[in-house]
Amino acid sequence: LYNVSPLAPDCTVLMTGSAGDVLEPITWTRAKNGRMVYSGLGHPDDSHPPQSRQLLVNMISSAMERELPAN
């Protein structure tokens, strides 16, 4: 779990995670000088579940301001 708090006030947290009693943002977005997305999910096993891959597709599509591709 990466320590990224505090985030800028214009960030939108999409997902949080905890390690013990520490709660941190795991994925978030921000629109400043363009669109940004962040994911702290980085372990190779994080990308195996279909939901994780869909989250990545959604985040990239959002950053590119594009419609989601059809499944």
Note down, in words, how this protein is organized:
- This protein has about 70 residues and is an alpha+beta fold.
- Helices cover about 20% and strands about 35% of the residues.
- It has one helix and three strands; from the N terminus they run E-E-E-H.
- A three-stranded antiparallel β-sheet has the order 1-2-3, covered by helices on one side.
- The protein is flat.
- The mean pLDDT is about 85.
Low-pLDDT windows of residues: none
| Largest beta-sheet characterization | 3 strands, antiparallel
User: How widely separated are the two ends?
Assistant: 31 Å
Number of helices: 1
How many beta-strand segments? 3
Give the % helix.
10-25%
Q: Which features does this protein show?
A:
alpha+beta; 1 helix; single chain
Summarize the structure.
This protein has 71 residues and is of the alpha+beta class. The chain has 1 helix and 3 strands; from the N terminus they run βββα.
Reconstruct the topology from this structure:
Layout: E1 11-19, E2 22-31, E3 35-39, H1 50-63
Antiparallel strand pairs: 1-2, 2-3
